[in-house]
Design brief:
β11 (171-176) and β12 form a beta hairpin. The protein is 6% helix and 38% strand. By secondary structure, it is mainly beta. The strands form seven sheets. Strands 1, 4, 5, 6, 7 and 8 form a six-stranded antiparallel β-sheet that branches. The chain is built from three helices and 32 strands.
Length: 454
């Protein structure tokens, strides 16, 4: 199978990408900067037909961060590789391989624009600094989306209808890919670190958190080495929400909840923007209750409520919102003798109707579900307690009779040394492909594995 056949056939264009083919064709003829300048004069070229009825879409000419870089097109088809995984037989499409570092968005967000797998979003340092890009997979056209001074790897939120929220520290920016409007939403206060943003399915609302910065003494060249020290420092944290449509006329940031505790994984319900989920960070040795929710529609004496109340020895990590609005999480019960039972768990945001499925052995590092929760993907695939190679494979998971059933999809061979090397696998919108990262070639690269090929 060639890159041209990835995703839907060319004649099945998603409605929310109206105008992009013309836009790409225009840039191919004129060059990136010239095309953007032309687009600024004729913004209707980039506008969906229903733009006038959509308050999220600006009706003015695009505000470009840097005309010299944003919109630049290169063709990277020569660095894209297709091959058959010799270990699993899976069809693999390697999207990047030119010696730069490339990282797809964090596993809690979409990684594609549209309803298929044709337009992938990732960050790359190929220009000399990390910037966000969109790759049109069938053609190999790579479009530079940002020209930020300090863009974060992993740290963006993607709405499939063409909206990208990203940090250019300390500014949270909103990029509308239908118009190339790029504007500031808010700034993190001085002295605070920023969390990964997350948005509703339509991109109307975005949430994030910020956490007080303090000097640490336990930092070493190991991931998470300062986590426990930061927990005991009891930093102040605040979870925020922004109405992006209203923000066109001014700042509309809302402080949803705050306390003396380190926050992370701040998420917003895909269709109920009043529900914010956040977690207490620090690791299972010290955190008594990880997951919490807050309803911003609560007008009087707002409170945060624990989700999936933990007992001593319990641990949960890597929570995410499914596309149907449930919370997925990995759950571990640590027994007195040190043995563990590990589960995939799913529940409503009010904590009811929980379903849990036990792993035959260790859980993967991260997991995600497809559109109807019939299939999950994880970045490890352990078959038994002696399966030490399981951390080198992506695992497809189904759930039956309280058990997680695992099949290996692809070998990723990553080092696990950094966040950027974590595979963080996610399904494409059409459930056909899994996008993941690996540093098996020394640099961070982005890959697709065909779910139907195994």
């Amino acid at each position: 199978m060639s890159p041209e056949t990835a995703g839907n056939p060319p004649d099945k264009q998603p409605a929310n990408l109206l105008g992009r083919r013309d836009f790409l064709a225009g840039m191919a003829v004129l060059g990136g900067s010239a095309a953007l300048a032309a687009a600024a004069k004729t913004p209707e070229l980039l506008m969906p037909k229903d733009a006038a009825a959509n308050p999220d879409i600006a009706t003015t000419a695009p505000a470009i961060v840097d005309n010299g870089k944003v919109g630049k097109i290169t063709n990277i088809k020569s660095e894209m590789k297709e091959y058959k995984d010799p270990r699993t037989g899976a069809r693999i499409l390697q999207l990047t391989s030119n010696g730069s570092n490339n990282v797809h968005p964090y596993f809690t967000t979409d990684g594609f624009i549209g309803d298929d797998a044709k337009h992938a979003i990732f960050i790359s340092d190929r220009s000399g600094s990390y910037q966000w890009y969109m790759l049109e997979i069938p053609t190999g056209k790579l479009i530079q989306l940002t020209a930020g001074r300090n863009c974060d790897t992993n740290s963006c939120a993607v709405a499939r209808n063409g909206k990208l929220f990203y940090w250019d520290r300390p500014v949270l920016r909103y990029l509308n890919l239908n118009t190339f409007e790029d504007r500031e939403l808010t700034r993190a206060p001085d002295g605070f670190d920023i969390g990964i943003p997350h948005c509703t399915a339509d991109g109307h609302y975005v949430t994030y958190s910020y956490c007080q910065l303090s000097p640490v003494s336990t930092a070493r060249n190991v991931i998470y080495s300062t986590m426990m020290e930061q927990y005991y420092q009891h930093p102040r944290s605040v979870a925020m929400r922004i109405d992006t449509a209203a923000a066109i006329g001014g700042a509309t940031a809302m402080a949803c909840w705050g306390e003396v505790m380190q926050f992370s994984h701040t998420l917003i319900h895909p269709t109920q923007p009043n529900i914010i989920l956040f977690v207490h960070e620090g690791g299972h040795l010290v955190v008594k209750q990880r997951m919490w929710t807050v309803d911003v529609d609560q007008k009087i004496a707002r409170v945060a409520k624990p989700l999936l109340i933990q007992q001593p020895g319990d641990s949960c990590v890597h929570e995410f919102f499914t596309r149907e609005g449930e919370v997925g999480v990995q759950y571990t019960i640590i027994k007195e003798d040190g043995s563990m039972e590990e589960f995939n768990a799913f529940m409503r945001v009010d904590g009811t109707w929980m379903r849990q499925y036990r792993y035959p052995d260790r859980r993967p590092g991260h997991f995600q579900s497809n559109s109807d929760n019939s299939l999950c993907i994880g970045d490890c695939a352990y078959f038994n307690p002696k399966d030490d190679d399981g951390n080198q494979y992506l695992g497809l998971m189904t759930h039956n009779n309280g058990i997680v059933n695992i099949k290996r999809l692809a070998w990723h061979g990553t080092s696990w040394k950094t966040q950027e090397s974590h595979p963080h696998p996610v399904f494409s919108p059409d459930d056909r492909w899994v996008m993941y990262n690996s540093d098996s070639e020394g640099k961070y690269n982005v890959y697709l594995a065909d779910v139907q090929s195994v």
